Amino acid sequence: MKGWDILYYLVNGLPIGAIYALVALGYSLIYASAGVLNWSQGDMVMLGAFIGYNLHCLLGLNFILALLITTPAVACIGMLVERIVLRSLRKRSSPPVNVVIGTLGVAIICRNLALAIWGPDAQLFRSPVGSVPVEIGTLRLFPQDIFILILGIALMILLQYFLKYTREGKALRAVAQDRMAASLMGIDVGKSDTLAFAASAAMGAVAGILIAPLFFVTFNMGAGIGLKGFVAAVVGGLGNIPGAIGGGFFLGLIESFASGKISSGYRDAIAFTVLILILWLKPAGLFSKITKETV
Amino acid sequence: MDHGEQPILELRNISKRFGGLKALEEINISIETGTVHGIIGPNGAGKSTLFNVITGLLRPNSGEILLKGNPLSHIPPHRRIPLGLARTFQNIRLFKNMTVEDNVLVGQHVHTPTLILSIICGTRPAIEWENKAKESANTCLRRVGLESMKSQFARNLSYGEQKLVEFARALATEPELILLDEPAAGMNAEEKAGLLKIISKLRDDRYTVVLIEHDMRLVMEICDQITVLNHGKKIAEGEPQIVRNHPDVITAYLGKGSNAYAGTR
Amino acid sequence: MERYKSSIPTCLYKLGFIAVILCVPYIIRNLYYLHLINLIGIYCLVVIGLNILTGYTGQISMGQAGFFAVGAYTSALLMMKLGLSFWVATLIAAVVAAVLGIIIAIPALRLTGPYLVMATVGFGEIIRLILVNWVPVTRGAAGLTAIPAPSLFGFRIISEKSFFYLIYIVVALGILIAVRISNSKIGRTFIAIREDELAAKSMGVPTNTYKVSAFAISAIYAGIAGSMFGCFSGVASPDAFTFNDSVGFLCMSIIGGSRSIYGAFIGSVTLTFVSELLRFMQLYRLIIYGAILLLTAILMPQGLSGMGPVFRKFSHRWKGKRRLHGNIQHSQRKER
Amino acid sequence: MDRVRKLFLLLFSLVIGIALISVPYSGSAANKVLKIGSVAPETGDSADLGQAQRRGIQMACDEINEQGWAGDWKLEPHFEDDEGNPTKAASVTNKLIQETKVPVIIGAINSSCTLAAMVHTERAGIPQITSGSTGASITAQGNKWIFRTAVNDSHQAIALIDYAINRLNLKKVSTFTAADDYGQSGAVLLKAAADKAGLEVVVEATYNTGDKDFKPQLLLMKERGTEAIFMWGIYVEPALIGNQARLLGMDCQLFAASGSASHKLIELGGEALQGMILTQSFLPESDIPRVKSFIDNYNKRFGEDPIPHAAQPYDSVYIIADAVRRIDTTDPVKLRDAIANTSGLELVTGSPRFAANGDDVGKRVLITEIRGDAFRLVEIAAVELSD
């Protein structure tokens, strides 16, 4: 029984880790390219879940079609957020903490708009791949978990491809390195910010649709997942794309082990304690090098 | 050395490597009290690295630094200031959103006790120390001629003026040895003349100045001793005239086959 | 932080202001508004500490509700279990909060920006989860009830009016001490650390000690405010010290203007009143609140208290125009 | 950009201006008006419960005003949102008492908010009826202004444990309770009832509201040979737990209390919760005419079945209306006494009768089972009401 449940907690932690990774990618992508923290990322997940729910469950569109419509829709919302919040803040060259408060205002607006539109109740999102578990030995793998892992990892690879090989992707990474130099090279810095916000909002939407069948759709699901995504991004090394993926899975596994082995009441407390210790050892996150500042 | 006194700062075979790159190799320099010592060399010669090692921001791989005879190796940067070591930065690092006077007052930090209780109760000792600090800050500003700009914000000053504020702030720590990292960079001719006057005035007041500078005319005019670094190695040291005509120095600066110019004025 | 000389002799100005403050409870009879004003006083105390930490030293913290909770629970438990008086309990609560502030500050020394934010978020959540799960001591989620009222020379402080005086005397002291500190060498050093920590270190400033003491000061302010909050509301439960409350405190600090002590008061007044006065909008209240938060963050980079220079700029421009106008007429008259 | 800043300042002061003007207006001066204050979390985490309370109260007031059930008193509800935060609950309670000058408050669902509001209703001498908070400390402080029409948790715990032993003779059970005030008081009551009845509790697990993954704890229970899981929390998490338990191949018996009794539980839980036993105070399909008409009206008006958090405030309004009808005044002190000796009222959740400490001991405790897409009555718990 002993070795077996370690494997079990591992398998149980991975799908949640994938969700956290997708949300963390949103934070890291925006922090890398625009150098700011987008606190409304969690609510993009919620919007993705709700719009997906409307299309798939209420209007009866098939799942893939719903996914293909929801993602660009939420991406546009992400662009709108960038346009309103970031553009005017850049114009006033205000401190980065104002962006946090600004996007926080956006988060509160989205949350309560969703409450006004879809009401306070939790909605059920039928899982597109059924729920008959696949049994390997005594281990049970659930189709929705597998689906999350596959689609999540596919999206991560897609993002890596986009950043490495497409023109806009390279522009995004250039802006991340040095905004001034990038704009001197003729890269439209504003457009790449918008692209970053749109891409991260889209990933949030996919995370929302993936998680909806597991954990229902409520208007305030964004807060919890947003915070977990932020924690995962920071632990992985903010702005470091592979770091965000690593941080997400790492957080998922800690939570799964902590609630199984120690006590579920203190699960988040344990997760945070571990993460603060990690930051103490590696102040720039798990997967980033520490840059010593000389003069 | 002619003074016979103990040198204020001695660097004994200091070397520093960043991975494969040898930034400094077996550097031996000793600087006399009350002199202006120039350090010159082409870009990437290791001048700024040398400053970072002296101020403790970088730890040398080998060798020893002696300030007035006692080693500095294990003393953190901020504890070297009370020992009389002050520096300015190559690219300006002023406190932009503070007034010029406050900037210089921060220099006074080590010389005024932090009397928390007296500050909270607003009693006399704190006020006295504050006035004393303001006085010495003003003298430093007067020295660099910026007293009129006292309540201006640092960000509103011109580049040359900001350099002088940083100079004043370094002076405010009441150092014996001042390390100036390219003070004249970005200054116009008139400001450079002013800088020359300030440094020579400092020499008269028995301060020791170590100067990194690219403006050869300024260096040749003000420095008593000059050390030339190239690719982390010391290639020449001595009086300005000797160093100017030193063949290695010319090759380092002007490249091979330029000895024809040696000896011309 | 600008020091602009006001023309009226400052002592007259201050005395008048204090007189107004002292008779507020008699002007505002309605206990609802008095309750709000007391609440604002408590929040203002927390935000002053946060301003010293965020505005002056540049260390953004999203875990202030953790210290606020430590203050409330420590003093409430001390009063209920050991029968200590309010003042002794508050003192101990402030010390406990300061110790916790130092404990969280030490790992935070190596962290900046978002990494520091995450460490403080973690701290806040850990405290709240301990309060929820440590049932034998903190009585779990329902929290502590019947927290005894403070008493001063035998006079029990129960009514909103008496609480008003208790709270605003402590707030006045808090502001006085904060202003003294911020105008002194300590405040100047905090700002130096915010502006350029490396340069400050090169000037001989022991930056680590100052950053830790900034955390300790903000923790003490939040601890004392927490202890008063416990007695003021009579109950203390983990629901009142959530991550949302920490975010609320940060919003008050930033919207009010984190770079000045008075910004704390402006921030706590604005946000507390706005969220109460919008109640007539029922369901859409929080949407408007979010919008106001967004617009204020965008349009006022230095927060509402940062409007000082803007007003002066307007007034200068207005005066300037008049003076300029005057000169033109003067010179035209001369030419004619 | 400065034009926009001036515009914003103008808008900002306009909003504040309207608010200031509209506040005093709310006190209408008609003669026989009974203002009822309602404090509930209409936003925040338990927004669904808060809005159910709002619907229940609104419907009750409209019915009473139409049928003139309370003589010529016109009922006027005033709703305030406490966002599930005790500090906000204290502020809005003060607003209702001082501003809108209500003589009675139906208030708060989270125990922490009710406790915060009680401090101010006791100080102002206003009766307060809570229809959602089940924390034991609420009626244990000797506060004579608080009444509770929420179903009594200890009766439910005793009924559930008794059913598990005598009807299903189970030996090993586990408790899985929320780490909020409702869940923690449930955990204590279940453990006490189980120990008294000699039932072994193998695992006492907890979860935080908003948790999404319960498989680790469920696995621990499965290892220890759990035959039944007693759940205590709002319906979202128990639905998830039931789902994930069935996915883990655990076919143990599921129990829950009135907090999870809602058609949403069935809708979200799906076939995983078939056969789940719940105690609750009223049944949508019950044949009692009073209950039937309430459910039909609610369904007609809001398009869904009512949850307990709508039914209990509905009854509280009737209790208040009945009291005012009897004493024909809204003086808080008289109103308190009138509410205290309410009797002989046949309402949706039973016939309310208040004990000295304010608990409603007239509540029915029904044991129901999920069969198909609704709750089916199994039996009425024969729990004699000791306290």
Characteristic terms for this protein:
heterotetramer; A: 295 residues; mainly alpha; two-stranded antiparallel sheet; 2 strands; B: 265 residues; alpha/beta; Rossmann fold; six-stranded mixed β-sheet; four-stranded antiparallel β-sheet; 10 helices; 37% helix
Looking at this structure, what is the CATH superfamily of the largest domain in chain B? P-loop containing nucleotide triphosphate hydrolases
Assign the structural class of chain D, choosing from mainly alpha, mainly beta, alpha/beta, alpha+beta, or little secondary structure.
alpha/beta
**Bulk shape of chain B:** globular
CATH superfamily of the largest domain in chain D: Response regulator
CATH T-level topology of the largest domain in chain D: Rossmann fold
What topology does this entry show?
The complex is a heterotetramer of chains A (295), B (265), C (336) and D (387).
Chain A (H helix, E strand, L loop, with lengths): L1 H33 L6 H18 L4 H29 L4 H23 L15 E3 L2 E3 L1 H23 L1 H11 L1 H6 L4 H27 L5 H16 L4 H22 L4 H15 L14
Antiparallel strand pairs in A: 1-2
Chain B lengths: L8 E10 L2 E11 L4 E5 L6 H9 L6 E6 L2 E2 L5 H4 L4 E3 L12 H8 L8 H6 L2 H21 L14 H14 L4 E5 L7 H16 L3 E5 L3 H7 L2 E6 L2 E6 L1 H6 L1 H8 L11
Helix pairs in contact in B: 3-5, 3-6, 5-6
Chain C lengths: L9 H13 L1 H4 L3 H26 L7 H19 L3 H23 L4 H21 L1 H4 L12 E2 L2 E2 L3 H24 L1 H11 L1 H6 L4 H27 L9 H14 L4 H17 L7 H15 L7 H29 L1
Antiparallel strand pairs in C: 1-2
How does this structure look, described?
Chain A is 76% helix and 2% strand. Chain A has eleven helices and two strands; from the N terminus they run H-H-H-H-E-E-H-H-H-H-H-H-H. A two-stranded antiparallel sheet of chain A has the order 1-2. In chain A, a hairpin with a 2-residue loop joins strand 1 (134-136) and strand 2. In chain A, helix 1 (2-34) packs across helix 6, helix 1 packs across helix 9 and helix 3 crosses helix 8. Chain B has 265 residues and is an alpha/beta fold. Chain B has two domains: 1-84 and 175-238, 3-Layer(aba) Sandwich (Rossmann fold), CATH 3.40.50.300; 89-174, 3-Layer(aba) Sandwich (Rossmann fold), CATH 3.40.50. Chain B is 37% helix and 22% strand. In chain B, strands 6-7-8-3-9-10 form a six-stranded mixed sheet, sandwiched between helices. A two-stranded antiparallel ribbon of chain C has the order 1-2. Chain D folds into two domains: 23-150 and 286-354, Response regulator (Rossmann fold, 3-Layer(aba) Sandwich); 154-280 and 368-380, Response regulator (Rossmann fold). In chain D, strands 7-6-8-9-10-11-12 form a seven-stranded mixed sheet, sandwiched between helices. In chain D, strands 2-1-3-4-5 form a five-stranded parallel sheet, sandwiched between helices. The model of chain D is unreliable at 24-29 (pLDDT under 50). The interface between C and D is large, with 46 and 51 residues.
